[in-house]
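Q: What does the assembly look like in three dimensions?
Context provided by user:
Components: two
Sequences:
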Amino acid sequence: MAGNSDLDVAYVARLARIKLTEDEAKIFQKQLDDVLTYAEKLRKVDVTGVDTAAHALPVFNVFRDDTPRNWFTAEQALTNAPRQANGLFVVPKVVE
Amino acid sequence: MTGNDLAALSIADLQSLLRRREVSPREVIDALRERIEAVDGDIGAYLSLGIEAAMKEAEHANVDLPLGGVPIAIKDIINVMDQPCTCASKILNGYRAPYDATVVQKLRAAGAIPFGKTNLDEFAMGSSTENSALKSTRNPWDLSRVPGGSSGGSAAAVAGDEAFGALGSDTGGSIRQPAALCGVVGLKPTYGRVSRFGLVAFASSLDQIGPVTKTVRDAAVIMNAIAGRDPQDSTSLNELVPDYVASLGNDLRGVRLGVPKEYMIEGIDPQVRAAIDAAVKQLNSLGAEIIEVSLPNTQYAVAVYYIIATAEASANLARFDGVRYGYRAENPKDVLDLYGRTREEGFGPEVKRRIILGTYVLSSGYYDAYYLRAQKVRELIRRDFASAFEKVDALISPTSPVAAFKLGERVADPLQMYLADIFTIAANLAGICGISIPCGFAELDGHRLPIGLQLLGKPLDEARILQIAHAYEQSTDWHKARPPIAAKMV
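A: Here is the predicted structure of the complete assembly.
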């Protein structure tokens, strides 16, 4: 269950696709409640009329020429795959 | 010259020997390997070495190139072709890089030999290297203390004479803070100055790659090699790269240096404060004008950082799911079970904590209150720097409020660990450049522990902070001090 913030660690961990033990969830809940309590100080800042951050040297619309070039072959891209077959990554069945 | 003497050289001094053919690139790698064998059992800077590949490159190294024949250690979050790239995480177990990062390609083009992958906090998340899932790294100045982080392996390797120079990455201080704690030089370039292609992404609006070296000149030499636009990284800037070595000098007349009053906070160790005060006086005596400036939103930087960095990390680390590379949980019953257990078993606690926090601050109902607000406060922090830089050429502060702390001292309290980055984080949020250089020692439990001076510069003004850092360094002896382990014989 949530502590002094609205964060429910067990629920958010499921959203993030991370399994947690109950003990881990309990410890994280306390630690992240502390961090969120610390972050409360941002509520005091007057941000009226402030745009979201721009970079120090903003760049926009960065394109490169659409020219074909050699990159990984399927074989190279699969060299690190935990499981593969027929030039494809193998995963458990997703759709029944 | 003994192997120890050789390993202790700066890049510049090593290059003189190489170019006079007094030592060969193969002998250099050999000396370094012996040095690593002698001390790395104590320090623990390296995760892997790749000696064979390095030896092969040493055979046909062209020593007349800018970094010809010089071995450079690489933080193990940067891809070096055919070498492991673990990110100090179990989730990348077995992974071998199928390509070179752009910085590695550029180092090779300058004649350098990538040699050894250094330890880090898992996925660069941490300030002590204690979050490495693979190895513990110790500070060469006191083996019971942390080297700082997250580039702790790179900083400890350079400080312990196990590397002539190294690459690190800096998202909130991860080059500068370990450089400070280990008594070496660490530069975080302007956001966009150096390509991140091939750097495993942690927080994409903050990450930068930069050098860790024994001297300021060496940092300039590496910057000459790695800076510049890269078509593979759309955030890399298409701006002229100056000759950073040529701009080094000793005269600081006419330079205006700002001391932010908000940085002289309570909680700075008195020995750190005294060293910074002395460094300010020294810079003043070299001709620099010292001006007090204000960065009023400084107190919000850590909170802003831990919202934005975790939000970006939660998205970037979604790719580690057990499908395309690295670790995969055994016998998954369905695809959700595959993701959930792969990530449970593959990620360490700090990475899980940050992904959960990042997912939360981006989630519907909380996005505005946390993420959006943090982005606006980030803009205020950026403006603070912009207006300070109207009055001064660079800013001075401590790099870390304390010298190296004991292993284990802060691991139980993530918030305390986060506050270790209080002086470094704002530079990443604002996208500006910064450097840490040695400026003294604290005495703790009979050990001398290095203190770092941070100089922050305007966007793309690396040449200026290198120049100031060089002038200061050349007027002091701090960079010549060696840790006790330096005397340990090969």
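Follow-up: Chain B touches chain A through 78 residues (CB under 8 Å).
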